[in-house]
Amino acid sequence: MLGLGAALLVVFNLPEPAAHGVKSAVRELLVPYHSALASLGGWRSARRDPSVSPQNDPARVVALQRLEAVEKENDELRRLLDFRKQLSFQVVACDVIARDGEAGWWRTVRVNRGTKAGIETNDVAITSAGLVGTVMEVSPHSAEILLISDPGCRVAVRCLRTGDFGLMEGGGVTGRDGELDMLLPAEPGEMTFIPRESGIREGDKIVTSGLGGVFPEGLLVGYVTQVKPARSGLFLNARIVPAANLARVRQMLVIARKRPSPLAGEAGL
Known about the structure:
Elements: H1 2-11, H2 20-48, H3 58-86, E1 91-99, E2 108-111, E3 124-126, E4 131-139, E5 142-147, E6 154-159, E7 165-169, E8 189-195, E9 205-208, E10 220-229, E11 235-242, E12 251-255, H4 264-267
């Protein structure tokens, strides 16, 4: 087991693009295990719940908590289905099966659909609440989603009320030395290059502008929490809190440019 761990460590630190094919193959092998672990997540959380009292029947308490978790998940699926009916483009429904445990939850998530379902690199991931991220790597049965909370994710955006354009990048995390990123909350994103005379203000909705050709126009990104002058004094910067709860997203829709087979999108629901 130690040897396998060492081998995986070497593989996932290989330089790009030499490691791309190897990483893709390894992810494919891990998909069934990630799916199984994801399905057990609610059960394990219930077992760790401090509200479980020794006076209660542990098995019954766990069963009730698991039922509650399933009901919440069904509610989320219903919202996703209703949202899907409103969309004018082809989407593929996906379940989150893994998160980036090394760099932090805010960087990437892995979903259980890939090229076999019509997903390609640079496809866009959304929920009924708003924009989630973009596909950075894909294999036949899984895909890595770069979340909008990662500093490497840049989105062309527009203030819905004022019409001002800008560029938003993820805030990542700001921690002290010795702290694990995965234990820290993500910082709000920052929208830059806003005209100095703009009337943008706290509470404004920020949507995708459609510029750049990656993100479709009009997807809700988040809300303005703060506006301040840029260091240059030529523009304004705004802090943006994502509309989607990136820390707890379990299901999402990927806008697939390549049309999947009729059953591909349904499989995730």
